[in-house]
């Protein structure tokens, strides 16, 4: 039976919502695969993926099935009890990674909050309160809580909220000498994104991650990888640390983990996990049966050779066409990234105009993202059809043709 809803429109946003977002002028109402329809029935191709969240597109049958089955079984039981979907998902994550223990929460920020608290607790227990300093990268992004936004290296997000969390240093990304100069025996953790997402879709250099691992080992610091955006098949490996062959001590995941259903996870080893004893950390909804049932279906689909190999093939298809478009219209020179997290770096003449390109693309019926003002970002479904790639990029090209003629 269908429920009758009161009509709403985009103008209502400005009347009822806190003004911390500036959403598009159209309102999406339905999605299927890599296509989305708005209130007027206009169809768009989705290369934004809900900011790297909709890893299997919209309304994937495996996810709809898992959610529906669980919705008719058990929604919430609290952490006074455990539940079957959480245990199944934890086992699958452990079997597929370096991890031996998992903590479930609801978002990337919460996964990072847990990761940073664990790192500080481990150092406190093993070495004392002096060892609490965290080193992160300039232009990094780790979430919006006070702790995670302080670790993130973008002052525009952390300024203006009173005193910041102390003991956090930022060093340039991919600069091993700068990290070497900053790290000390007071460092409890080095926190890095293997691919900087919000910072401009910037993959780490192999030597940088290897060097960071060695420096952490030398200084008894933990290496934390934030794989909220780069994880769950996005790079063509299940997690990007596997692509580099550099294993962290703690890893955070969210976004694609739930394929659109809110869930986050912190993965670590047994030896570290024991420092979060009963009562030291928690979350009301974390590990709830609905989220875990959906995430289990996500990992079952993504962690297969055909999907992960498909990501690499689709990367080639995107990159070839984007490089051709960039050269033809003189808008961007470099296409960088890994797997299906790609960034077109705008050239001097177009610097600062990523939002204008995003808007022009939407007008032509294709949804893209920006990663800062100078990079147009693509984070489509990992199973996007080749026909959708071709059609979406044709629309993107039309948008650039109009912009450059204007």
Automatic annotation (TrEMBL):
Catalytic activity field: N(2)-acetyl-L-ornithine + 2-oxoglutarate = N-acetyl-L-glutamate 5-semialdehyde + L-glutamate
Key words of the record: Amino-acid biosynthesis, Aminotransferase, Arginine biosynthesis, Cytoplasm, Pyridoxal phosphate, Transferase
Entry EC no(s): 2.6.1.11
GO MF annotations in UniProt: transaminase activity
One Pfam family this sequence matches: Aminotran_3
Subunit structure: Homodimer.
Protein name: Acetylornithine aminotransferase
